[in-house]
Amino acid sequence: MPETFRVGLVQMSTTPDPEKNLQLAIERIHDAATRGAQIICLPELFQTQYFCQREDAALFDLAEPIPGPTTAKLADVAKELRIVVIASLFEKRAAGVYHNTAAIFDADGQLRGLYRKMHIPDDPLYYEKFYFTPGDLGYRAFDTNVGRVGALVCWDQWYPEGARITALQGAHVLFYPTAIGWHPSEKAEFGTAQHDAWRTIQRAHAIANGVYVAVVNRVGFETGNIRGNSAPGAGLEFWGGSFLCDPFGRVIAEASHDKEEILVGDVDLRALEDIRRNWPFLRDRRIDSYAPITNRLLD
């Protein structure tokens, strides 16, 4: 396992055409690889505009089985470039059972594993409970050509438990493919605070667990337009801001709010070791005192 490796994050916008989005993503994977990236992560549900802005049973037709046509293409590009690829996909598991799933392809093109999104939101224009069955594979870390990594998805990023359990399995980097943005009517009043909270919670995961955290978001204004059919309403402005931070919470690389970018940054396992030696949070955990965490509330 290398002591250092380079992460690539593809911050992209999407078109109404899923096939075009897949091709654009593959082109940007190539671009990231030319910049030395050895493990590359795409945004959440990158193949389409964010369709969860409405509840429409016809949109289940966007889902694919895993393995399937899209995973075959991603496996091919991983093998061709000798890189690790993390991709968030709309998985059709069975009739009526669909997941928001991160697939991890190793540098030999093999599917190393899946992570199914555990926390499913249901908010205005984020109607994910209509589409996604909560994950049943648990929190997972995967051995890849570059190192041991974990993948969680978007809404999972607000929950310290998922980050902690994945880190306890030995993950050196937590990847969060994401689709998060502003409601236009809220941006002026709450936009800065919302983005700051999102950035802060994920830097905190890095610090508390002694790991690198890599977050990749989409960018641009979307109405959930799928093949010319948009959702009613004001749409969402996805705020970009993809970033990589180290186990000290220091941001190594960060993207803009409004541009497509390929972000690259290095993971140094020697630095991780040094930070954990000086901040031994995992050593000092009082695991004998944490049983109440499994309760919904403590009345």
CATH superfamily: Carbon-nitrogen hydrolase
Q: List the uncertain runs.
A: none
Helix content: 25-40%
Coarse structural class: alpha+beta
Overall shape: it is globular
The CATH architecture designation is 4-Layer Sandwich
Q: What is the first-to-last residue Cα distance?
A: 47 Å
Question: What's the mean pLDDT score?
Answer: 97
Q: Please give the CATH class.
A: Alpha Beta
Q: Strand-and-helix sequence, N→C?
A: EHEHEEEEEEEHEEHEEEEEEH
CATH fold description: Nitrilase/N-carbamoyl-D-aminoacid amidohydrolase
Account of the 3D structure:
The protein is α+β, with helices and mostly antiparallel strands and about 300 residues long. The protein has one domain: Carbon-nitrogen hydrolase (Nitrilase/N-carbamoyl-D-aminoacid amidohydrolase, 4-Layer Sandwich), CATH 3.60.110.10. The chain is built from 5 helices and 17 strands. The strands form 4 sheets. Strands 5-4-3-2-1-17 form a 6-stranded mixed β-sheet. A hairpin with a 4-residue loop joins β8 (about 140-145) and β9 (about 150). α3 packs parallel to α4. The longest helix has 26 residues, at about 185-210. It is globular and about 55 Å long. The mean pLDDT is about 95.
